[in-house]
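Thread: quick sanity check before group meeting

JM: Hey all, I'm pulling together slides for Thursday and realized we never actually wrote out the predicted structure for the chain we discussed last week. Dropping the sequence here so it's in one place. If anyone has concerns about the input, flag it before I start.
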Amino acid sequence: MKIKYIIIGLLVVLFGYLIWQRILTNREKSSKPTTAKGKENVMSVYGAVIHAESFADNLNLTGTIEPDEQVEIRSEVSGLIAELNFSEGSHVNKDAVLVKMVASDLLAQLEQAKTRMQLTSENERRAKLLLEKEAISQEEYDIASAEYRTAKSQIVYIEAQLSKTYIRAPFSGTIGLRSVSKGAYITPTTNIARLVKSDRIKLSFAIPEKYVNRVSVGKTVSFTIPESKEVFYAKVFAIDPAVDLNTRTLLIKAMADNVGNKFVPGVFANVVLPLESINDALMVPSEALIPIQNGKKIFVMKAGRAREVLVETGGRTKDKVNVLSGLTHGDTVLTTGIMSLKDDVKVKVTLR
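JM (edit): ok, ran it. Output follows.
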């Protein structure tokens, strides 16, 4: 038993000693004089001095090349095809007969109508002579005259129906691939072929609604097409009168000559719409901008320290952005390490 009490006593003494040593250590630390504050950290960053420069504010868009005119060739009446007078992919002139339909029944009706007209014409002539001699009444003459006019109008109607059996080209252009053959039965819903006029092309594109007041009829736009580095130009000739409510864009069409048939209708084009030219624009590297909830901010160096500045931006180029407000000529803009920078931090700037 004595040994047990001795061991417990030794443990209590040891525990008390450790506590006493800890208290002394803490007192020594608290009694030491405070050391002088160390040197302030300096961040090394890259920056650029901005100067006023010329800037062409352009809007890059995607457009579609459309033909000057385009139509699906169809028949006004139903019937059998008697002749196909065009070759696929060939040029046809305006009013050229493309398709001739079987019209034997109409021709027979026309001959019948002509015979009836001759008869009613003779009856009308005789009735007129009899009326002059007062051999018949005015009513009898009117009936003969009406029959003659009816027969005459019937001929006009049948000739109009016959003209519909000749399908003509509404304008000069290139005829596409046909979807029917000779002898086929067609209706007004049958697509025969497509006729395209593309000596001039229409460039169709849409702009965001905020730019609607910066484009007008007569404005020149530039564009390129796939697999070609050549820049082409078109002139705006029509602007949609209303903004599309679904896309919030405004449709615009420009016209260009298709010299050498370089443009194939249906392909897309990269369109550049010039908005304005600025001679004293402040252009900053795009990597210097930091998006925030209320807009964008930039860090600039003032008196060796980073200062946070809220800015308003405009157009942009491939690697620069036009700053409309917040900066002045000669400011040094910080371009690297900006995500870890804080306002009033001391910085060492390397210009580039």
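AS: nice. The chain has three domains: 46-55+278-351, 60-68+197-277, 71-186. DSSP finds three helices and 19 strands in the chain.
JM: adding both to the slides.
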